[in-house]
Each structure stands twice: as C-alpha cells, then as structure tokens.
Write a structure and sequence with these properties.
Largest sheet: 9 strands, mixed
Shape: globular
Structural class: alpha/beta
Number of strands: 13
Distance between the termini: 36 Å
Mean pLDDT: 96
Strand order of the largest sheet: 5-4-1-8-9-10-11-12-13
Radius of gyration: 18 Å
Oligomer: single chain
Bound molecules: 6-O-phosphono-beta-D-psicofuranosonic acid, magnesium ion
Length: 312
C-alpha cells in the first residue's frame, strides 16, 4: 500500500441557508476530516491508502466507517469505542463569502486514541506516512499516538509528508508552535500555507518559508498560496504553479487537503515536481466548486481532461 494516515474524521453539519446560524432551521450533513479528505482524494487518483483512527460505536461513527471504507481506504486499524462519541462540527456560511467552523469534538472518540492502535506490521506495509497538525492538537493522547506512529514509521523507512494545518481553536499557541516545529524537523515533504509560515517563523514570503523548512531538513516544500497557486522548492528546483482554470468557489473548506491529494499522487507517480504541484493546484481548486469537503475531489480522468483541454 502507498499512503497511511492517522486522524479524526467527523460528521459536519451545514445550514442550508447563508446567514448567522442562530436562524438556521435545516442542515445538511457530510463527512469531513483533513486526513481522510486527502486519503479519499488519493484513492480517486489511483493511490492505495490506509487510515488509523478511533470512532464512537454510534450511528455517526458507523456512517463514517462505511463511507471511508466505501471510498476504498483500508480501515483495518480504525477502532470503534463504546467509551466516547464520534466528533462533529458545524460549517456556517455566516455571509456568502465568509465561512466559519465550529467544533463539537472535545473528548471525542478520536481524541482518546492511544498507542495500542499502532501496529508495526501494518505500518510496514506502507511507503508514505501523511500527517497533519490537527491530530496532535485534539488531545495529548492523540498527540502521543501520532508521535509514536511517526517514530515507528521513520524506523521502518516510510517517507513522511506533513501539512501543518494550524488550528488555534484546538490548542494553545506555545504548545502548537513547539509541537509543529518538532514534527517539521522529522519530515521529508511539507505542505504549509503562508499563515503557518507566519505563525511558525514570522515569515510571510513563501520563498523564505520554504528555505527555512529545507534548512530544517525537508527534501521538498510546497507553500500553498490559495487562488495564486503554490510555490515549490525541491532540491535545486524552485518555481510557481497555478491551477489550469479559475473556479467559482462554493465551499472553500478542504482545498488544502485536495491540494495534498493531487500533489502526493503526482509525486508517487514520479511526475516532475512542477507537474505534481500543478496537479495539486487543480485538485485543490476543484474541491472548492462543490459543497462538502470531499465531494468535489477529482478523478484521474477529470484531471487529465482538464490538462489536455488546457494544452489545446
Ligand atoms: O485546510 P483544509 O480546509 O483543507 O482542511 C479542512 C478540514 O479536519 C475539514 O474537513 C475539517 O474537518 C478539518 O480540516 C478540521 O479538523 O478543521
Ligand atoms: Mg489546510
């Protein structure tokens, strides 16, 4: 198998209408979590993946498990527990151009993950470990579990890919900074955004952020620039890439995870770094055109069509 990840996936409820949520009556539910968003995107692009997590043994947990399994992700090490509930969050479209996220996940099943979930034989079946900064933010046991998995994966020779995914609603600034920096030093490929470079290093220039992470030991850094695309620095190659076309944004959440899926799939298929970053930009852009964090993730065919159209 190719890519393993660990993290929390939740049910997200979104009011059907735009406006402050206190007036909302009808909600739609979807499934979301940064790590499975990326794994689902990878599966759609033909990359095999596995997910380690813990869900509540409740109706929402069962729904997530079936959904993630249905997308083709291996769930052999996803545990259902009777001791805690599945986490949820709400995505409020406060104004037509302003989305706010509200978490109801403290004490959730995933936040009670522990090291017993990490099985060396299972981990050894993968080539890459994909981590985000959300998993260590949700609780100290989840952080310890992720750090243990990181250690085991490095011992087994997996390549480590990291999206810092800073979520200051979930942990305090000092702990976030110290933890994210210590993880970054262990990673081969890092996919930050500008705001994370600002938070971690006080740098807002993508070239300086990438250089800083290369100096800390990364092989490849791709800094996401939203609508502007992304900047990459890999070995002696640097440059900018953009999505093939401008899109109409319906729901911005999940763009970073879509980017990660497109980029990682290209990297695994040994595309040039430039083409892999371009594929990441296309996947990230397409995610935003559909309501929900994973529903807009493209298939390989869709990305190929987009590119051939772009070249003619
Ligand atoms: O950085 P992104 O907008 O790509 O991440 C979105 C995900 O895991 C979303 O699905 C949500 O569940 C979360 O990030 C989170 O915990 O904030
Ligand atoms: Mg992100």
């Amino acid at each position: 198998m190719d890519v393993l990840s660990i993290g929390e996936t939740m049910i997200v409820f979104s009011p059907n209408e735009v406006g402050p949520m206190r007036y909302a009556r009808d909600f739609t539910s979807h499934i979301a979590g940064a790590e499975t968003n990326t794994l689902i995107g990878l599966q759609k692009l033909g990359i095999s993946t596995g997910w380690i997590s813990q869900l509540g043994n409740d109706e929402l947990g069962q729904r997530i498990l079936s959904f993630v399994r249905g997308e083709g992700i291996n769930v052999d090490f996803v545990k259902l527990t009777d001791d805690a509930n599945t986490g949820i969050f709400i995505k409020e479209k406060f104004r037509s151009n302003q989305t706010r996220v509200h978490y109801y996940r403290s004490g959730s099943a995933a936040s009670q993950m522990n090291e017993n979930l990490i099985n060396k034989d299972y981990v050894s079946q993968f080539k890459f470990l994909y981590l985000t900064g959300i998993t260590p933010a949700i609780s100290s046991s989840s952080k310890d579990t992720m750090l243990h998995l990181l250690k085991v994966s490095k011992q087994l020779g997996l390549k480590i890919i990291f999206d810092p995914n800073l979520r200051l609603k979930l942990w305090d600034e000092d702990e976030a900074k110290a933890t994210l920096l210590s993880i970054i030093k262990e990673c081969d490929i890092i996919l930050p955004g500008i705001s994370e470079g600002e938070f971690l290093f006080g740098l807002s220039d993508e070239r300086k952020i990438a250089q800083k992470m290369i100096d800390l030991g990364a092989e490849t850094v791709v800094v996401k620039l939203g609508e502007q695309g992304a900047y990459y620095h890999s070995g002696d190659q640097t440059g900018y890439e953009k999505a093939s076309q401008e899109v109409e944004v319906v729901d911005p959440v999940g763009a970073g995870d879509g980017f990660a899926a497109g980029f990682i799939a290209g990297y695994i298929e040994q595309m040039s770094i430039q083409d892999a970053v371009h594929q990441g930009c296309d996947a990230g852009a397409l995610v935003t055109t559909v309501k929900g964090d994973v529903e807009g993730l493209p298939t390989k065919e869709e990305l190929e069509n987009l590119n051939s159209k772009n070249k003619t």
